[in-house]
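Risk mitigation, structural track. In case the binding assays with magnesium ion fail to produce interpretable data, a predicted complex structure has been prepared as a fallback.
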Amino acid sequence: MAFQRVKGTMDVYGHYARAKEKVSNVLKGMAELYHFSPFETPVLEPTALFERGSGETTDIVEKQMYTIFDKGGRSLTHPPEYTAGVARAIVENKLYATEDLPIKAYYEGPLFRYERPGLGRYRQFTQFGVECVGADSPWLDVETLLLAVESLYYLGFKKVKALVNSLGGKASRDAYREALRAYFEPHKDELCPDCQRRLATNPLRLLDCKVEHDHELAKGAPSIIDYLSEEDRQRFEQIVRYLDALGIDYAVDPGLVRGLDYYSGFVFEVKIEGKKDYGSVLGGGHYDDLLSEVGGPALPGVGFALGLERLLASYIDEGLDSDADPGLDVYLMPIGSAAFERSFGLLVETRLSGYSAEMPSKEGKLSSYFKKAERSGARYALIYGDEELEQGRAQLKDLARKEQSEIDLTRLAEELDARLGEGEGHHHAE
Ligand code: ATP
Ligand code: MG
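Fallback model:
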């Protein structure tokens, strides 16, 4: 019986897996530079966490959750986003009391949303994200966006554009919600059924509607910027001054509201401008009430989440993935049965020295060995016959330069160190 993967999921292997690994390592390395630490939360959470944390009337919670009932009858959900889980973990483990604040965490893991699969849209996808929790300053809001943008530049993207907005604090948002209701109310009958509901429950969500007519209507809606309190406005202006000073390429988009309810104050999305438009590659912002919503103290936070699959799509489109495969360091080429037998020892030794190594799985012609070496991207071939091996000698061939020299096998590690130990692409075990 043959099986197919579930709709909207993917199998990851080969070059794509390499590229994903590379991108992931760059993102983690950059987060470390910004003093974030790794953080992991389970891929099963109590369903109520998302209802409470992410927002009961968001599309994600209303329509897209993968909720299961375990054998004990508990309602559990595979996370559609990680911010709520990180907040839960900080509260549950009382990290705000034991760790220095702000807590700066980065995560990477699979997310699950039941939505219509399409370009850059899956039902299981991967997010890399960061959260900075427990300290409040416009600089931290900016630093989060800066990390995202700098990571994209570091990966090699040339055109990275940020869209920014402020949702203000509670009072500003309350005033704005009323303004939105007043604006949309006369058009109620033209709205999609979802938006008719949203008008009552969560009018901000109307600005996020993907239905064409609603989207057009939303363009004429009042702007949140005009409803910000004096304090909220000043904070946003300070943020914008930082963005200017840092030379971040951004535009203020008053319609940017994000799809989750916990955001307050600064919000942003980032797009990579390239061959194809996959939508936003990442989004994030500041939140004031999430921690208290999930039972913790009133600590603010700011974070972003980036979709790795969308990032990879652009990464490959722009040809940035060409050196993602590290390739093999050494391919062993025994000539003769005695040499073949003794290759296992040599293979183990080479790997112990910290160099990736492979040998043919059965004896064959030298020409077939070269083909295998080439396909595995090997940089060096180690060639030896029975007699040479007896004398402790072998030929070490640089496969790119086609240069070959005889080496003393007792000095194999040193010879490899001299050639591969430093410089690009080596992956000497630490
Ligand atoms: P969109 O407006 O495209 O639906 P979103 O606002 O739902 O995105 P967020 O919840 O902010 O997205 O998640 C942050 C990032 O995660 C997105 O910018 C995107 O790169 C990625 N992402 C979100 N949903 C999906 C999905 N279904 N498949 C793949 N990546 C996704
Ligand atoms: Mg979405």
